[in-house]
Amino acid sequence: MGDDRDGIFGRFVGSFAWHTSPIDWCEPNYAVTSSIVEFYNTVSNAVFLLLPGLLIRLFDPFAGAHSRRVQVVWLLNIVVGVCSAYFHATLSLAGQLLDEFGILWMLGASFAFWTPKRLLKRLPRSVFGDRPEESFEKLMLCSTVVLTAMGCFWPFVNSFFLMITSVPVVAILISDVVRCRDPLARVVVYRCLVFWLAAVAVWLSDRFACGLWRRLALPGGHWLWHLVSALSAYQSIVYFVYRDAVVRSAAKDGARPAVTVRLWPSDRWRALGVAYVALDETKSGPAEMNGNAGEERCKNC
To answer: Quick check: pTM over 0.85?
Structure first.
């Protein structure tokens, strides 16, 4: 028994050793400094620290009036950035798992919080009962815990799950954008999809066209993937938070949703502005349209 425990503890400690991860990205190791294995892949994670930090501040009025769940997800984004930086700085197995687990829990929370109600209503009542939202949240929590445990023993499970989770998100965004009436919300969706396509292209090129990056004298493409994936992910979160708030407001009292999508520092910055959900005081009173019309707007948003 003692040997077994020593073996497990030894493997745990050994997982923190540098270069124990089976993954090694295209960027040459120690190209900039002997203290960091993949310098550009490490420092590019700053986007996961700076952008969520700004969004926590921008979302504060909305979170206080509606739900602070979004702040939890921004904090999980920061955790992802810290863990990813540690992974690329060391290429340790522990760093890889922490990086993947951070993403896994961020995705699990996002699905639990903001999966569209119209999809939850289709879940079998015999399994999810009369409150499918609560049951689905519990399902996502249990699934995330199970996948985390599985990932400790079979790390390849993490990458497989993380790769496929973007598919339903993109499908929902595409189905919504053609009907969404809010112009800034449409901008957010379009930008999200463009960055998602860029992220897929960059990730594939780093894994399968490393020679091209080397001939261009560039440090691979994974550092760029950090940037474009962060920009795509945050905008998908902004849209789903907005969509959820619109639907819940209409379902509650039929009033016109008291939220709107804004861009920081100005709504005129449609290409570069940071999107967030703000309270819309001009629409906080009784709706000019009846409750059914409010529901219709929610369906089309």
So the answer is: yes
